[in-house]
């Protein structure tokens, strides 16, 4: 596949339905995790224009910053801290309509207003998280959860 994306306007679902097969094509057959995480981050940022899209990977007892698109970010996050650490600890997707209302939120960027974090689960263990931040309140919903969980499900099977 050429490394150009077809970016569309439309409903959120239509945008996902267009970008998902492109992401799948980018990562299918590519065994390098870093390359795949980088391309997923770039494709999602390009399509949706969110503030920050990226990955944190579990290394010993912390999440460590991985490939991302957006402003500089927190480098390390402990289990249970902030939205990312909570999603890791609970092994479940967290949709946060207003980060200021989330107990213990870590403000890597003061511009972040809402967030979704999806754990990367492989063989029953959380290996990292996909973190997406928006400058607007209430950006993320069940549509984002469904499609982003689908994408993260491909990461260790590509």
Describe this structure in words.
- The chain is built from 4 helices and 6 strands, in the order ααβββαβββα.
- With 158 residues, it is of the alpha+beta class.
- It has a 6-stranded antiparallel beta sheet, with helices on both faces.
- The protein has one domain (12-154): GAF domain (Beta-Lactamase).
- Helix content is 34%, strand content 26%.
- α1 (12-27) runs antiparallel to α2 (33-48) and α1 (12-27) packs parallel to α4 (142-154).
Question: Quick summary of this structure?
Answer:
This protein is of the alpha+beta class and 158 residues long.
Physical arrangement of strands within the biggest beta sheet: 3-2-1-6-5-4
Terminal residue distance: 15 Å
Kindly provide the name of the CATH class: Alpha Beta
Domains counted in the coordinates: how many? 1
Taking all Cα atoms into account, the compactness measure Rg is 14 Å
* Distinct helical segment count: 4
Strand content: 25-35%
Strand segment count: 6
Class of secondary structure makeup? alpha+beta
Q: How would you sum up the major sheet?
A: 6 strands, antiparallel
The sequence of SSEs as H and E is: HHEEEHEEEH
Overall geometry: globular
The poorly predicted ranges are none
Assigned CATH architecture: 2-Layer Sandwich
Could you name the CATH homologous superfamily?
GAF domain
How much is the average pLDDT? 94
CATH topology: Beta-Lactamase
Range of helix content:
25-40%
